[in-house]
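Predict the holo structure. Ligand: beta-L-arabinofuranose.
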Amino acid sequence: MNRSRTITAAILLILISSGAIAQVHDTVRKISSATGVIIDTVPPPPALPGLFADPNIAVFGKRFYIYPTTDGTEGWLSTNFTCWSSSNLVDWKNEGVILDLPRDLVWAKQRAWAPTIAFKNNKYYYYYSANVNIGVAVADKPTGPFTDPISKPLIAKGTKRGQMIDPMAFVDDDGAAYLYWGQGQCNVVKLNNDMVSCDTSKILSFKPPGYNEGPFVIKRKGIYYLMWSEYDTRDPRYSIAYATATSPMGPFKKAENAVVLKGRGAVKGAGHHSVVQVPGKDEWYIAYHRFKIPGGDGYNRETCISAMHFDKDGNILPVNVLLKIHPVKLK
Ligand code: FUB
């Protein structure tokens, strides 16, 4: 060992034996001074500052966007939606309020939850839950301003069993768009070309084992992955699982090792996610919320991003919620 290596090793030893923090790869670990054993792993900081949940991540042009629920009230009583943008997935800019229910809707004033975005017809369509109905809004830019083109819910409360919340719009390679949503069961319907109407008599409902809410669909190598959240968002066990199909309407078969993201160490209540692919690459990131660290719970959640990988057979590998991500360059 040369002199500088010896000094580095000595410094590391001092840090470890003093119970300090050691950086191993991208995970920060606290080590017990008494036993030398890892006692805690310090989670990476959240992606967004403050209390934001149900993040819907997307990429348009040269920027990533996150559309979250504004959190921090018991019973999730938020009244508006914000948008965040980033050129690298790490540094996020608040683009401000893009939809304010009391100001912009005539049919709902609160419980602004779990939005999603889709691009079609050269427009941005924004779907969201408002007072447990699903609404739609439209804009020419991903940052809005969004307006309600139908002045009523797109999917009204009571349309199907469970809560009419947590929409996700998926636009397939052939341009056909599908809306997924639901708490208690998963519902899917093909959207009409205008993206602001659908035939509710054609809604398909099903419940993969463990499904609770927050459906999200991605397509990779011809396979449709339906992912969702299990347990209640106030439960520390809240987690994300998936099933696959060869058609966007299913049938979806739950994967063998279906749970791909859950809390670990100080990370609790990790779920309600969305996934983004870096354009032109087989590189994927998952945005989700966890109980705020420290002191959070199911009403005080924060938005995080982790890398998501597939194995050679197309299975989603378990996500390490303790690893921080590095800046991503968009071409
Ligand atoms: O944020 C309000 C609700 O909590 C969402 O609609 C659910 O998915 C859960 O995350």
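DSSP finds two helices and 21 strands in the chain. The first strand starts at residue 21 and ends at 24.
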